[in-house]
Amino acid sequence: MPAPIHRLTARYGLNPTKIETVVPAIQSVNDKRWFNIIIPKTRDESKQIKREDTVDIKIASNGSGYKGGIGAAAVLWRTRREDLKRLKMHAGSDKEQIVFMGECIGAWLGLHLLEQERDTQGKKISFYIDSQALIRALQSRQTKSGQWAVKELISGLNQWVTQNETSTLTVYWITAHSRVDLNEEVDTLAKQGAKGNSSLRAELPRKLRGEIPLSTSVLKAEHAKQSKETWKAKWSKSTRYERMTAIDPDFPHKKFLKRIEGQQ
Question: Are 207 and 149 in contact (CB under 8 A)?
């Protein structure tokens, strides 16, 4: 016999096996981060840190919502620009994913580029991410959409540090559109990913080669949007609509709808 949750998803034409699972955020003493996290206090400070950074390997990642799509990208470089390595990916439409997922996948791509590198023992690595929401999620568990990807990212970063125990990996927040080093390039790649342009499937991490679970946040927002449109269509055909329009053509007001929203 189907469970209530399966009846509910069937009622709205959803396949629960394709939707992400959001688990409770339970902190554990075993939750350790083997990598460093630094969030500069100001935008200018974040740009200055990156300008003066002289580490062996730099990584920058980004997620983007652009023209109805969600894209992700990452770049890795050592000392020379010709050594630059790139990855980009289309994460889905904005009716399937949130930009936060694009940020997660971008960081995942950056980690994958690092995993492909040789001669990393004893090196210093700086990993630049322009999403404070993602970096704070790396610091503590949250009960939100996309946290399954954060968990996988933390596990992957910890595993890399464990395997390269003489290396130092630091995650930095960098202000978006900072025009520092290759930030603009990774932004462009992320937008290309949003438009549907991805790197070759064989170049992507194995866990990102299949379907990405649908975001619960997006599904809820889409349902609310469709419900309002359905209500507006029914309201415009009612006899009361004609009467109210003669009195007040702007009814129902947005403020009124907002006030009664929590009472429905």
Answer: no
Instruction: Calculate ∠ Cα 23-29-35, nearest 5°.
Output: 90
For residue range 144-174, what is the model confidence (pLDDT) as tens digits?
899 999 999 999 999 999 999 999 999 999 9
Per DSSP, the residues of 52-107 read T---SEEEEEEEEEETTEEEEEEEEE-SSGGG-EEEEEEEEETTT--HHHHHHHHH
The candidate with the shortest Cα–Cα distance to 67, out of 86, 94, 35, is 94
**CA 251 to centroid of chain Cα atoms:** 38
Which residues neighbour 76 within 8 Å (Cβ) at sequence distance 6 or greater? 57, 58, 59, 84, 85, 110, 113, 114, 117
Judged by DSSP in three states, 108 sits in: helix
Please compute, for residue 75, the number of CA atoms within 13 A of its CA located in the half-sphere on the CB side: 18
Greatest Cα pair distance, the chain, in angstroms, is 77
The model's pTM? 0.86
Size of the chain, expressed as the number of residues it contains: 264
Q: Decide: 59 and 127 in contact? Cβ < 8 Å.
A: yes
Phi, psi of 195 (to 5 degrees): -80, 0
CA angle 85, 103, 94 (to 5 degrees): 115
Half-sphere exposure of 215 (CA within 13 A, CB side): 23
**Under 8 Å between Cβ of 35 and 157:** yes
